[in-house]
Give the backbone structure.
Amino acid sequence: MKCVKHPDREAVGQCGNCGAYYCSECAEATKGLKKEFGTLCVDCYQKELRSTISGIEGVKSKRVRNIILSALFYIVGLIVLIIGIVNRTSANLSGVLMIIAGLILCGIYTAISGWVMASALHRAHEIRHGASYTITDSGVYRDKGTANKVLAFFLGAVLGVVITPIRIIKNIVGIKSDKQAIVHYNDILRNLSKI
């Protein structure tokens, strides 16, 4: 068999994806990618690299969006929280409400994550054990786990005051590693296109 890229050379392997044969030069050029993508020909490696780069860019843009929104809500939440603390008196309910609203705003992303997690746990419980129903005089109602979702939301909001800055820092570090990975994969892609 002959190499698909170099028809004058004998093949040393076959692509696990498309079945094309490749020579020792192609095998040498792609040996660093086998652990990540398996045994593929140069063309299939290029497709995998493009797909991986696209996926990383999608994650990177999601991280940027999360940083911006988290930081925005956190700053607004801190402002509302500080105003609530300053205006809090024993007779002033609005100050207490502002403190609560400020906490929720500071941790809104963690709160939403708590709600989503509680929803997923409820669905998993229903799949495993079946749905729960409450029978009352006015009808039969399916338990949707609302109490657990609300509890997870408010717990996430309170913990979010501490967790949100950590998540923002983690996303910033993630963006840096995403950029490095994209540069690395683009370099490999450029080298493969020379074969």
Q: What stands out?
A: The chain has a mean pLDDT of 90. The longest helix spans residues 146-193.
